[in-house]
């Protein structure tokens, strides 16, 4: 089929054909390479994309240096499009604007006059017919050596002009201002860095060529964005990013507290203050930020970033509030790092930090060598000319006579004085008025100076080490002239955490009541008498837990599974509540035996009526699913006992009462293990066969202080056991305990007084 689908190709002679598959593959690959090499990726040498390079070069050719007068941006764009870059004017102008925005480029290359956009709205710049521009002094690091034989030149798109293929950057600009772009099958995201830190890393590599990438974070700890927001990525992660060449950097806004108000005075790179306020306002409208009262944007010319957040009261935890905002708004952003660029060999490559710096240094050394060789050639040429001029000066009369007498004085001068063609041309090009200036002393002085320079240049290019010293000296000089302090501090902060549903709930006392039929309700306050509430016909009170409205209510079912419900979402106690089975997904046929509430570190004793139990932390019972989680393993035939809260695990006792009338008291809870789930240890010994047949089992459990009294109830009768009376019932765990007095051997409950 491919052989039948053909398409004419102008490059193929008439009568030839090419399979469509082959033609499509070649066309796509050509387009891909164009996008990769000529549009999206920066070059290692100067860190620029083609359109940026052409804009900078065109402005330099227009004489728009750092000390020149401003010219209309339309003039620059016109020159770029007409001479070097035949593409859309809007794309060209936007690339020019980007290089002029101080909030976009760490070291802007263009000095703009007029409306060039703002950090809040980078696209709000005026049309190019209104704005004016010139190059910044910093752009000199890209252009100063352009005409010194340091770069190769190529014809422009119509072959009428020459343009530099690359610019001779004196510093690794690809890391200074970074780059971002999407090509075909690859992308790049190189963050900006501090000039002084980059220079220090380069100098270290020049001084220690065998230095490893692990040595570089000492000199280059991380990116340096144009804004003063904090980099909160740990140094170890930053080092790993530089080692692999990819990763992400987290940047967080900087704030301070003024008279109870939160003032944000630095935003992450490329973050709009208006967008941040909009995100916070949306949360306020959705009632997800009840602790925020008002927002204000007080940014002005003196304070480019000043966003004010007014908390609802002074009791608000500001650090916790800001942690939520960092997690849910653009006050904290992650920036992808992907150091992909075009290497020295003209191929795209993903490199680590050391590879980029070492390859750039190799390129810089080669560039300086070309510059020295170019200068050396000029010096030698000038010395050659001076030798000829000195000969002409010594025989000036004869030289003038030959010029006046001969139709072709050049060959005669060459034969008479032993001159070459370059020397003769220099003599013949002299104006008559300049002959008097050919003083021997001046010529010899210039010769001496040039010979000294020639000797120095020849000595310098003898070895790579001497050229490296020149590179080192120039890097240090440029760092001193153009460098500045780091703007983005690198600090270690705790990870941002958004508010959970419970965090946004007003904190107030609440009581959760569980009925025998598995219905649940919640009442405000702790003074609720659950027995006095109205229950459905055939239903009654089973258990109650007291806690706070921002806590979870934990329910234990008859199989030993634990379930969670946010207490503030439970139906009000003004009615009869709601069935737990509608909110949860318990196994068929189970019943709910108990309810607990408390902080994450609250302790409870949970046990089965087979006499086994253990101590558990509240957070171990929390479950995120409707199906709950297994907690208490039940022996065959056993059931769950209502859990007992622990106030002071180091100074409390545990009592267990069996249906056979045996009472056992543990003098200390230290004998019980702390588990997350399981059966626990045997506390009160009951034969498993009797539990299985339900002949005997534990009917009650209580945790109490050694000074408290224990009340044993059997029907309408009760037995009060004071602290001294309980000594007779103290046993080690796993014992049968002691039988209660006659009349209480069918006791059904324990109470603490």
Description:
This protein is an alpha+beta fold. It has five domains: 41-169, Topoisomerase II, domain 5 (Alpha-Beta Complex); 254-330, Gyrase A, domain 2; 367-482, Orthogonal Bundle (Topoisomerase, domain 3), CATH 1.10.268.10; 501-598, no CATH class; 603-609 and 630-753, 6 Propeller (Neuraminidase), CATH 2.120.10.90. The protein is 31% helix and 21% strand. It has a four-stranded antiparallel β-sheet with strand order 10-11-13-12, covered by helices on one side. It has a four-stranded antiparallel β-sheet with strand order 19-17-18-22. Helix 11 packs across helix 14, helix 12 packs antiparallel against helix 13 and helix 13 (409-417) crosses helix 14. The longest helix has 42 residues, at 353-394. The model is unreliable at 1-7 (pLDDT under 50).
Strands, helices and their partners?
Blueprint: H1 20-40, H2 50-61, E1 71-72, H3 73-84, H4 89-98, E2 110-113, E3 132-135, H5 140-143, E4 153-155, E5 162-164, H6 173-176, E6 179-182, E7 187-190, H7 195-207, E8 230-231, H8 235-244, E9 246-252, E10 254-258, E11 261-266, H9 273-285, E12 292-297, E13 307-311, H10 318-328, E14 332-338, E15 340-342, E16 348-350, H11 353-394, H12 396-405, H13 409-417, H14 421-428, H15 432-435, H16 440-460, H17 464-482, E17 509-515, E18 519-524, E19 541-548, E20 552-557, E21 561-566, E22 578-579, H18 580-583, E23 592-597, E24 603-607, E25 612-617, E26 629-630, E27 644-646, E28 653-658, E29 662-666, E30 681-682, H19 688-692, E31 698-704, E32 710-714, E33 717-721, E34 738-739, E35 749-752
Antiparallel strand pairs: 1-3, 2-3, 4-5, 6-7, 8-9, 9-14, 10-11, 11-13, 12-13, 15-16, 17-18, 17-19, 18-22, 20-21, 20-23, 21-26, 24-25, 24-27, 25-30, 28-29, 28-31, 29-34, 32-33, 32-35
């Amino acid at each position: 089929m491919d052989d039948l689908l053909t398409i004419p190709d102008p490059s193929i002679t008439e009568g030839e054909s090419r399979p469509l598959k082959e033609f499509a593959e070649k066309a796509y690959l050509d387009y891909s390479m164009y996008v990769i090499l000529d549009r999206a990726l920066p070059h290692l040498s100067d860190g620029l994309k083609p359109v940026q390079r052409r804009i900078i070069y065109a402005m330099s050719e227009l004489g728009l240096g750092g000390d020149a007068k401003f010219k209309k941006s339309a003039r620059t764009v016109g020159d770029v499009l007409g001479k070097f870059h035949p593409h859309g004017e809007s794309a060209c102008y936007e690339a020019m604007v980007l290089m002029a925005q101080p909030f976009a480029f760490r070291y802007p290359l263009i000095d703009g006059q007029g409306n060039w956009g703002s950090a809040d709205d980078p696209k709000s710049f005026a049309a190019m017919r209104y704005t004016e521009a010139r190059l910044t002094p910093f752009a000199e690091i890209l252009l100063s050596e352009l005409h010194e034989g340091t770069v190769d030149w190529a014809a422009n798109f119509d072959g009428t002009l020459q343009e530099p293929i690359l610019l001779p950057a004196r510093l690794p600009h690809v890391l200074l201002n970074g780059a971002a772009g999407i090509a075909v099958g690859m992308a790049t995201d190189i963050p900006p860095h501090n000039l002084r830190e980059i220079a220090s890393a380069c100098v270290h590599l020049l001084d220690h060529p065998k230095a490893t990438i692990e040595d570089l974070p000492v000199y280059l700890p991380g990116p340096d964005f144009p804004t003063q927001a904090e980099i909160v990525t740990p140094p170890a992660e930053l080092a790993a990013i530089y080692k692999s060449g990819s990763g992400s950097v987290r940047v967080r806004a900087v704030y301070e507290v003024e008279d109870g108000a939160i003032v944000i005075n630095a935003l992450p790179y490329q973050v709009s203050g208006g967008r941040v306020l909009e995100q916070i306002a949306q949360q306020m409208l959705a009632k997800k930020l009840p602790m925020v009262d008002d927002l204000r944007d007080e940014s002005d010319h003196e304070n480019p970033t000043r966003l004010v957040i007014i908390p609802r009261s002074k009791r608000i935890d500001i650090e916790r509030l800001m942690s939520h905002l960092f997690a849910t708004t653009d006050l904290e952003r992650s920036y992808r790092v992907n150091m992909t660029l075009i290497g020295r060999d003209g191929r795209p490559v993903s490199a680590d930090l050391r590879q980029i710096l070492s390859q750039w240094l190799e390129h810089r050394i080669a560039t300086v060598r070309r510059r020295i060789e170019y200068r050396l050639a000029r010096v030698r040429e000038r010395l050659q000319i001076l030798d000829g001029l000195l000969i002409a000066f010594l025989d000036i009369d004869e030289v003038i006579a030959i010029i006046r007498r001969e139709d072709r004085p050049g060959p005669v001068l060459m034969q008479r004085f032993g001159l070459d063609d370059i020397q003769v041309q220099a003599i013949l090009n002299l104006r008559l008025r300049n002959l008097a200036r050919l003083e021997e002393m001046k010529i010899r002085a210039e010769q001496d100076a040039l010979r000294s320079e020639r000797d120095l240049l020849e000595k310098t290019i003898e070895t790579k080490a001497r050229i490296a010293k020149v590179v080192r000296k120039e890097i240090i000089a440029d760092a001193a002239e153009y460098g500045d302090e780091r703007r983005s501090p690198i600090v270690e902060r705790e990870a941002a955490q958004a508010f959970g549903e419970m965090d946004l709930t007003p904190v107030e006392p609440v009581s959760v009541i569980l009925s025998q039929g598995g219905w649940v309700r919640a009442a405000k306050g702790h003074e609720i008498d659950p027995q006095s509430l109205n229950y459905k016909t055939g239903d009654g009170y089973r258990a109650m837990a007291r806690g706070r409205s921002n806590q979870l209510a934990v329910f234990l079912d008859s199989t030993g599974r634990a379930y969670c419900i946010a207490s503030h979402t439970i139906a009000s106690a003004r009615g009869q509540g709601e069935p737990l089975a509608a909110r949860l997904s318990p196994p068929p046929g189970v019943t709910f035996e108990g309810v607990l509430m408390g902080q994450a570190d609250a302790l409870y004793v949970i046990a089965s009526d087979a006499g086994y139990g253990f101590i558990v932390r509240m957070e171990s019972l929390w479950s995120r699913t409707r199906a709950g989680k297994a907690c208490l393993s039940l022996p065959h035939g056993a059931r769950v006992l209502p859990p007992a809260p622990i106030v002071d695990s180091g100074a409390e006792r545990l009592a267990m009462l069996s249906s056979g009338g045996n009472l056992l008291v543990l003098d200390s809870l230290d004998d019980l293990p702390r588990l997350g789930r399981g059966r626990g240890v045997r506390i009160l010994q009951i034969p498993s066969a009797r539990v299985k047949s339900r002949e005997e089992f534990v009917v009650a459990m209580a945790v109490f202080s050694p000074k408290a009294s224990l009340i044993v109830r059997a029907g309408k009768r009760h037995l009060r056991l004071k602290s001294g009376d309980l000594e007779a019932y103290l046993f080690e765990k796993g014992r049968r305990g002691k039988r209660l007095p006659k009349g209480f051997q069918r006791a059904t409950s324990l109470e603490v007084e």
